[in-house]
Amino acid sequence: MSKITKEQILKEARENGVEFIRLQFTDLFGIMKNVAITLSQLEKALNNQCMFDGSSIDGFVRIDESDMYLHPDYDTWAVFPWRKHLNAQTGRLICSVYKTDNVTPFEGDPRNVLQRVIDKAADMGYGFNVGPECEFFLFNTNEDGVPTLETNDKAGYFDLNPIDTGSNCRRDICLALEEMGYTIEASHHEVARGQHEIDFQFGDVMTSADRVMTFKHVVKTYATKHGLHATFMPKPVEGICGSGMHTNMSLYDLKTGKNIFDDPDGELGLSEKAYNFIAGIMAHVRGMCVFSNPTVNSYKRLVPG
Question: Which of 10, 86, 106, 125 has the highest CB neighbour number within 10 Å of its CB?
Fold first, then answer.
């Protein structure tokens, strides 16, 4: 059940001068897509009545199944901080994708895929929390705003100004994320030149997945505002460290909230189910590479050099 109501969203949008709302969703390749609507269409969108052409999204549906619906998750409502100085502000809602009947979840929507797993875990009495650690590179751009191959600094791990010339951009990213409801735990320069990390507080797995997608959007937006180019490419520069995303995970009891992985009496403080969980990852690690290492460049990060 949503923590915020349709009426609250409509009221906040009107009171804050929101004129445009971006309905966001993710395609099969992990790329965020969106359609913009005006304030007059917001109530229609909140009633799950906004359609789009799914046949034009890579990997979605054929032309005769093209009418698809966006179902906004009310809890993802936010106003973009970087638009607040304008008269017409912009809000956003992250959506799940539904088929032509507007009842059946689309199987190719990453959010729906995740929801099926969440429901399966819930049937077993489990909830799942995730805390990601996101890394990215900042590159200089030329006079036309086109990215160059030159990182924006030559700094290293935990360096600071004036060596870390990306710190102002990183600071603005953190402030914007906090305005959007994130709890920022730490931010710092990473090992490689031009590489940065920002860590935010863990949350339930769906919220964390939405936050990762939003994080990438915010990082790229503020990099552009600073005349830089941000990339989450695993290995953008040969011979230096690449970027990953450490993912801290915990399973908890839905009734008691107890951490299922915790066992104070265990040799390593881990329960039997924690070992089962680790074994499951190891058993399926090759198949998981389809998602964790989806491109040729992913594997360049996994070898020396």
Answer: 106
Q: Is the pLDDT of residue 86 over 80?
A: no
Rounded to an integer, the average pLDDT of 271-292 is 96
Question: d(Cα 143, Cα 231) in Å, to the nearest integer?
Answer: 19
Q: How far apart are CA 258 and CA 237, in angstroms?
A: 43
Q: Judge whether 234 and 297 are in contact, CB under 8 Å.
A: yes
Q: What is the CATH number of the domain that holds 146?
A: 3.30.590.10
Same domain, 48 and 170: no
Give the residue ranges of DSSP H helices in the chain: 6-15, 42-46, 110-123, 167-179, 205-225, 272-283, 285-292, 296-300
Which residues are CB-neighbours of 291 under 8 A, at least 6 positions away? none
C-alpha–C-alpha distance, residues 55 and 40, integer Å: 26
- Residue 152's H or E segment, with its range, is none
φ and ψ of 81, to 5 deg: -60, -35
* CATH number of the domain that residue 87 is part of: 3.10.20.70
